Amino acid sequence: MAFNLQSFLQKSGRSLRVWNRTLSKASELESVGAIVEKNGPKALAKECDVLFSMLFDDAALKQICEEVTAAPPKKDLIWVDCSTVYPATTKEVAAKVQSHGVRFAACPMFGRPDAAKAKLLVGAFAGEETLKLGVRPYIEAMTRAIIDVGTEPHHGTTQKLCGNFFIASCIEMISEAVTLADKSGLSRQNVLDFINTMLPCPVIQGYGTRICEDNLAISPSNPGFAVKGGLKDVGLMRRLADETSTKLHIADIVYEHLEKQLEKGHGDLDWGSVVLSVREESGLPGEVEK
Question: How far apart are CA 240 and CA 204, in angstroms?
Answer without folding.
Answer: 25
